[in-house]
């Protein structure tokens, strides 16, 4: 197996992931802070213990917003070879998947509201066994990747 | 090929009527229960009248919907027109048709007719795209011929078709009973019994039960043991009954490029599997079957919406040593039985650790708890549970293996049952490896390969192959000309 796929995701992916993680963890921060405030005001628990929920929520934010996005970006790589799409992803468990172009049924690009704001897009390609994603490519590159996969898929159809 | 619009068999009226009744029964049952427990005479009378009305309405509706239903084939498509008030005409292009199955429910059996289900590749599992509730056997055959005759593929199969399907194997009564006895469905049966016992509790008064206990066993230990034995035995019988219901008369036959499966005691099911759609074959050796050299065969077939959803039983029980011969006649592409490559020795430690970790933790927890609370060391005996767990880990390690046989990937793993899967290279939708930090340190990797199955896909996975061997295997399984040096 070749050492690593050549292409990386768009660098702005990290910022986008951070924002969406911040949005995702916001309810926990609110809940943690609320519970701590309640404990401090209405109970006689020692301060460090009363602050525990808020600190736990904070740790969650540090992990999901601070630590994981750059790690995820570092491992995420892809490459479109002449006969296969090569994907590598993961944070702690890193997996490598090869999808023959001849198995790909169709390709889409998708962009959510946040992605549109950043000018990013996700390429989704479907095989009979489910969908595969290449997230957070800059929109023109995503379109190019989509068209390239589609063109190569057509060529390989006779296989 | 095309045909005139045809009607269903008149038995469809009854089927339709019963279906309508069934829809109303839920509502009526709630009222019925209320009438029995609380309501007075008047309420009961009202319910009876409502019941009669429902039956009459259902009968009329059954007749009307039978009259409104027509089906035919024309210009490369299957048409079904139905609907009493809201007319609805469905057109299914014939080359999209995945399978034409016939099912025989109790009502259909009474009239000697069948239900025909026409399924397409995009159809959702469990719900056929077009269903004809009652058709005579001849009409069903004619329809199947019209639909399958259209298919461009079986050109050479057409001559063979004249000879009719050839039976490959039939499950005899003895095989059926053995399959039930070793099915390992006891867990399912046990939970059924648990539910049933809740109901029984309401009927058997406590005094009767107490007397029964006294009579059966003087001490509670014996009583418990006896109860466990009886329940276990009953669950086992139930498991056998379930198998008998599902697999009585299991017959696999082949006609050119199609496999036909017939099975079932009360509801006769017939299914068609085009050979070209089979993605992988799995041999499952259950814990109770492996000692007797018995196995069950399953197929993963693409976009095939049977009730099992992802995979269908190809044959419920046959001796392991006959599997290869059987597959040669049924699905020749999958009849490989290569020497498997074992996992490296250094993977054994990880396998044993994975299966014992939970028991060690729980055992230590129980031990500590007992020590702290009762000052006794006896709790640490719970750690002994880790011994059989370690044996299981060793077993999993020993049984795991892989091979590249000809153009097929063969992997064997064990999760209680030992499963060997065969998937041709050209059927793999994707494959790859994954590494955890621990695996990276000892140069091991997890191999995974996906094939299409049912509505989605199925994954075959082997944990802890040698990393470079796994990398080479993934390359060798790639598209293009075979480039394998491993075998």
Largest sheet data of chain B: 7 strands, antiparallel
CATH architecture of the largest domain in chain A: Roll
Lateral arrangement of strands in the main beta sheet of chain B:
6-5-4-10-9-8-7
Considering DSSP H and I runs of 4 or more, what fraction of the residues of chain B is helical?
Answer: 40-55%
Structure class of chain A: alpha+beta
End-to-end distance of chain B: 48 Å
Number of helices of chain B: 14
Number of domains of chain A: 2
Could you tell me which chain pair has the largest interface and how many residues each side has?
A-B, 24 and 28 residues
What's the CATH H-level superfamily name of the largest domain in chain A? Pleckstrin-homology domain (PH domain)/Phosphotyrosine-binding domain (PTB)
Mean pLDDT of chain B: 80
Describe this structure in words.
The complex is a heterodimer of chains A (159) and B (487). Chain A has 159 residues and is α+β, with helices and mostly antiparallel strands. Chain A folds into 2 domains: 12-72; 77-158, PH-domain like, CATH 2.30.29. Chain A has helices spanning 12-42, 47-50, 52-75, 113-118, 139-155, and strands at 7-8, 77-80, 84-90, 94-100, 106-110, 120-127, 130-138. Chain A has a 4-stranded antiparallel β-sheet with strand order 1-2-3-4. In chain A, β2 and β3 form a beta hairpin. In chain A, α1 packs antiparallel against α3 (52-75). The radius of gyration of chain A is 21 Å and the shape is elongated. The mean pLDDT of chain A is 88. By secondary structure, chain B is an alpha+beta fold. Helix content of chain B is 44%, strand content 29%. Chain B is built from 14 helices and 20 strands. A 7-stranded antiparallel β-sheet of chain B has the order 6-5-4-10-9-8-7, with helices on both faces. In chain B, strands 13-12-11-17-16-15-14 form a 7-stranded antiparallel β-sheet. A 3-stranded antiparallel β-sheet of chain B has the order 1-2-3. The model of chain B is unreliable at 152-162 and 304-310 (pLDDT under 50). The chains are: A alpha+beta (159), B alpha+beta (487). β4 of chain A pairs antiparallel with β18 of chain B, so a sheet runs across the interface.
């Amino acid at each position: 197996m070749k050492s690593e796929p050549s292409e990386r995701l768009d660098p702005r992916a990290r910022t986008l992931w951070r924002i969406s993680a911040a949005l995702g963890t916001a309810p926990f921060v609110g809940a943690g802070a609320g519970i701590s405030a309640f404990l401090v005001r209405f109970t006689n628990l020692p301060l460090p213990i009363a602050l525990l929920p808020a600190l736990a929520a904070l740790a969650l934010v540090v992990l999901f917003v601070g630590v994981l996005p750059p790690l995820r970006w570092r491992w995420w790589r892809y490459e479109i070879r002449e006969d296969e799409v090569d994907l590598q992803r993961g944070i702690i468990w890193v997996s490598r998947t090869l999808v023959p172009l001849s198995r790909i049924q169709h390709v889409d690009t998708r962009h959510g509201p946040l992605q549109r704001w950043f000018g990013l897009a996700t390429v989704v390609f479907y095989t009979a066994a489910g969908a595969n994603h290449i997230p957070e490519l800059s929109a023109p590159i995503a379109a190019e990747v989509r068209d390239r996969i589609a063109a190569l898929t057509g060529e390989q159809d006779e296989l | 090929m095309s045909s005139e619009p045809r009607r269903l068999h008149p038995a469809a009226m009854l089927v339709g009527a019963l279906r309508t009744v069934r829809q109303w029964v839920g509502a009526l049952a709630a009222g019925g229960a209320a009438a029995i427990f609380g309501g007075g005479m008047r309420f009961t009378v009202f319910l009876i009248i409502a019941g009669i009305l429902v039956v009459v309405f259902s009968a009329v509706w059954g007749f009307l919907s039978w009259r409104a239903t027509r089906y035919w084939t024309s210009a490369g498509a299957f048409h079904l027109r139905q609907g009493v008030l809201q007319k609805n005409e469905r057109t299914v292009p014939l080359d999209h048709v995945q399978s034409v199955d016939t099912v025989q429910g109790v009502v259909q059996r009474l009239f000697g007719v069948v239900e025909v289900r026409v399924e397409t590749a995009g159809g959702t599992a469990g719900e056929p795209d077009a269903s004809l509730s009652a058709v005579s056997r001849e009409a069903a055959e004619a329809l199947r011929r019209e639909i399958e005759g259209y298919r461009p593929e079986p050109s050479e199969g057409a001559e063979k078709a004249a000879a009719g399907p050839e039976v490959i194997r039939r499950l005899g009564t003895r095989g059926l009973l053995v399959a039930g006895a070793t099915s390992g469905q006891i867990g399912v049966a046990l939970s059924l019994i648990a539910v049933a016992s809740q109901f029984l509790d309401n009927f058997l008064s406590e005094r009767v039960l107490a007397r029964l206990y006294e009579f059966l066993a003087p001490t509670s230990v014996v009583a418990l043991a006896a109860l466990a034995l009886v329940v276990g035995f009953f669950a086992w019988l139930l498991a056998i009954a379930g198998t008998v219901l599902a697999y009585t008369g299991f017959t696999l036959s082949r006609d050119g490029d199609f496999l036909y499966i017939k099975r079932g005691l009360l509801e006769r099911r017939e299914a068609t599997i085009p050979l070209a759609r089979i993605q992988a074959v799995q041999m499952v050796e259950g814990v109770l079957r492996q000692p007797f050299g018995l196995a069950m065969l399953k197929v993963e077939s693409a976009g095939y919406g049977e009730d099992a959803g992802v995979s269908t039983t190809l044959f419920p029980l046959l001796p392991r040593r006959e599997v290869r011969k059987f597959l040669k006649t049924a699905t020749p592409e999958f009849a490989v039985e290569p020497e498997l490559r074992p996992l490296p020795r250094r993977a054994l430690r990880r396998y044993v650790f994975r299966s014992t970790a939970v028991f060690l933790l729980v055992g230590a927890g129980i031990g500590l708890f007992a020590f702290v609370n009762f000052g006794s060391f006896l709790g640490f005996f719970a750690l002994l549970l880790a011994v059989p767990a370690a044996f299981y880990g060793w077993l999993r390690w020993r049984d795991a293996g892989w091979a590249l046989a000809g153009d097929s990937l063969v992997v064997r793993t064990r999760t209680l049952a030992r499963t060997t899967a065969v998937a041709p290279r050209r059927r793999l939708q994707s494959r790859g490896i994954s590494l955890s930090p621990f695996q990276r340190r000892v140069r091991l990797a997890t191999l995974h390969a996906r094939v299409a199955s049912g509505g989605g896909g199925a994954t075959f996975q082997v944990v802890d192959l040698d990393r470079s061997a796994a990398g080479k295997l993934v390359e060798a399984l790639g598209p293009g000309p075979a480039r394998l040096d491993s075998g």
